Amino acid sequence: TIFGNYIFIPHYGFVASAFTTLAAYATLVILGYWFGQKHYPIPYQLPIILMTLLVSVGPITFLPHAFPNINYAVYWILVPIYFGVLYVLEKRFARNLSS
């Protein structure tokens, strides 16, 4: 994180710090998963976890770029849809665990 901040902040500003930290944490998650599976394998449901992450981060990240004039009321309309999708994913995840 420190090295990335040293390199990128002078060129890109504070946004570079956020992305550098995100990249560092993502690297730690991937390495932790890899070493953890190597020494103590746990059968994580990776497709469900990644789909939940995509459903959580995707709309907030991509909607403002796809529709720059979007009203914040639309975000509030999307909140129940978001929780509905999460409910379906969790229900599917629970069904996979029980079988």
Written overview of the protein:
- By secondary structure, the protein is mainly alpha-helical.
- The protein folds into 2 domains: 1-42, no CATH class; 43-99.
- The protein is built from 4 helices and no strands.
- The protein has helices at residues 2-12, 14-39, 46-66, 72-98.
- Helix 1 packs antiparallel against helix 2 and helix 3 (46-66) packs antiparallel against helix 4 (72-98).
- The chain is flat and about 55 Å long.
- The model has no long low-confidence stretch (mean pLDDT 86).
Shape: flat
C-alpha termini separation: 42 Å
Helix content: over 70%
**Count of helix runs:** 4
The fraction of residues in strands falls at: under 5%
CA-based gyration radius: 18 Å
How would a crystallographer describe the biggest sheet?
A: none
**Structural class of the secondary elements?**
mainly alpha
Domain unit count: 2
H-E order: HHHH
Q: What's the β-strand tally?
A: 0
Mean pLDDT across all residues, rounded? 86
User: Low-confidence parts lasting 5 or more residues at pLDDT below 50?
Assistant: none
SSE map:
Layout: H1 2-12, H2 14-39, H3 46-66, H4 72-98
Helix pairs in contact: 1-2, 3-4
